[in-house]
Backbone:
DNA sequence: TGTTCTCCGTCAACACCGCTGACATAATCT
DNA sequence: AGATTATGTCAGCGGTGTTGACGGAGAACA
C-alpha cells in the first residue's frame, strides 16, 4: 500500500479530518517532534501521533510509507536545524567545534529520531550542505586533501557516534535510564578496593563525570590532535 | 512479577522443558546471540527466543526480569569477549589502542546485538573488569585522576559510539547497505563543482575513505591528544 | 521409600504495536 | 451539475512484551 503516498508538492485536495485539522507532511513532522520532546521517546507511535494530530492514525500513511520513512524525514529536518543559521567565522577550530556541538545538540533534542537516523547516509540536500561546510573549513584551514578527508571522516563519525550514544541514553524508557545512571552510584561506587583499586580510587570522580556527555571533551581532544597535524606553513 | 527470577548460582531444580531442554541463563544468552546473528536484530523477541530454545516464551522471565535485563546480559557478554585474553604490556598507548580495537571488533562480530547493547551501562562483572583495566592503564601511565577519568570517558564512549555506528552499517539489510554505499559514488561524486567545490575536489578520496571505518584514525587522534596532556614528569 | 514443599515451565490473556484493504465522502475538474 | 478521485476513517490482522494462575516435576526430609 505504498502507492497511496502522494508527494507533498503535488497535493491538491486537503480534506479536514473529523476534528477539523488540515493535515500536511510538515504538520505531521512538527507534531511528531513535539510528541517526542514532550512525552518522551516511547510516545512516538502511529496511534499516539494520530491522536495528537486529531486524525485517524492510519492517515499518517497517506503522507509517509512507514514509520521508518517518517523517521528519515525527521532526520533530514534535524540536520537542517543543526546547520540553521551557522556561518563560518574563519577560525577553523572554532568553526568545527561549533558544528560538532550543533550536530550533537540537534540530535539530542529528539533522541528517538536520532537513534534510528544517525547511522544513515541520505545524500539529501541538508546532508550534502553539511559535508561541504565541514570539508570547506578543513581545506581552507590548510589541511592537504588526504588529511582533510581523514579528519572529516573521524570528525563526522565521532559526532554522530556520540550523538547516537547520548541520544540512546535519553531515548531509553525512564526506568531503564534511571537504572543506567544508578549503576554508577550503586555499583561502581561500592566496588572493593582490593579487587578494583583504580575504580575505588576514582569513584567520586567517575560518578560525577559519567553523568555528563563525554562528547565536548572528546571533541577537544580530536581538535587538539588535528591542530598538531596542521602543516606548519598554514598556521 | 519480577520476584520470580532466581539468581543463577542459587538454582537447584532444573526441570527440562516439554521438548527436553534444560534451561540456564547461559544457554539463553548464547541462544539469543545466535538468534540475533542469524536472523537480525528484529528476530530477538521473547516468542522467537522461546521457540529457538525449545521452551515456552514466558520461561525466559524465570531467568531475566525483562527483555531489557536480557539485553544487559548480552552486552556484558560482548564486553567479556572483547577483554578475553588481554594482558597489559606496560606501554599505555599500545595498551589503550589494543583495548579500543578489541572492543570495536568484538562488537562488530555481532553487529545486530551491538546495535542494541552498545549504549547501555551494565554494571556487571565483565564491564567493571574492563573499566578497571582502562583506568589502570591511564593511572599507571601517570595521568592525574581527574584527567584519567575524563580521558577514560572519552575513550570508552568513542569506542562504543564508533562500534555502534559501524555495527549499524553492517546490520543493514543488504539492499539498504548497497544503497548507502552507492550514495557516495552516485551522489557525492557527481555534485556540481560550483555549488559544492570542496566535495567535488575530494570526491575520489571520499569515496574510498568512507568505505572503511573511521575508528582507527579517530583512535589515533585521541591517543595523540592524550599523550600531549600527559604530565612532563611522567614521560 | 514416601511425603511434602516449592520451583519453574506452561497456558491464556491483556493491552499495545505497525500496518493494510475496503469504504465513504468531500474537494476539485470538466 | 455531475464525474472523478484523493484522502480520512474504519475494522482487523498478526505481531509485541508482560503477567497471574496453575500444575507437575525435583529436591529435601522423614
Residues:
Amino acid at each position: 500500500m505504498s502507492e497511496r503516498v502522494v508527494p507533498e508538492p503535488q497535493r491538491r485536495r486537503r480534506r479536514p479530518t473529523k476534528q477539523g485539522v488540515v493535515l500536511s507532511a510538515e504538520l505531521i513532522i512538527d507534531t511528531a517532534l513535539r510528541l517526542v520532546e514532550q512525552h518522551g521517546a516511547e510516545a512516538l507511535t502511529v496511534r499516539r501521533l494520530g491522536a495528537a494530530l486529531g486524525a485517524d492514525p492510519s492517515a499518517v500513511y497517506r503522507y509517509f510509507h512507514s514509520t521508518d520513512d517518517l523517521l528519515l524525514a525527521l532526520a533530514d529536518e534535524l540536520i537542517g536545524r543543526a546547520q540553521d543559521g551557522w556561518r563560518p567565522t574563519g577560525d577553523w577550530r572554532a568553526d568545527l567545534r561549533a558544528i560538532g556541538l550543533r550536530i550533537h545538540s540537534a540530535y539530542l533534542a529528539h533522541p528517538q529520531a536520532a537513534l534510528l537516523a544517525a547511522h544513515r547516509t541520505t545524500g539529501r540536500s541538508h546532508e550534502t550542505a553539511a559535508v561541504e561546510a565541514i570539508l570547506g573549513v578543513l581545506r581552507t584551514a590548510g589541511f592537504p586533501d588526504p588529511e582533510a578527508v581523514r579528519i572529516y571522516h573521524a570528525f563526522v563519525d565521532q559526532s554522530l557516534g556520540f550523538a547516537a550514544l547520548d541520544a540512546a541514553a535519553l531515548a531509553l524508557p525512564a526506568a531503564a535510564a534511571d537504572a543506567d545512571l544508578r549503576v554508577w552510584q550503586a555499583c561502581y561506587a561500592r566496588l572493593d578496593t582490593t579487587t578494583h583499586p583504580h575504580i575505588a580510587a576514582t569513584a567520586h570522580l567517575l560518578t560525577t563525570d559519567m553523568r555528563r556527555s563525554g562528547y565536548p571533551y572528546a571533541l577537544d581532544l580530536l581538535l587538539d590532535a588535528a591542530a598538531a597535524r596542521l602543516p606548519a606553513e598554514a598556521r
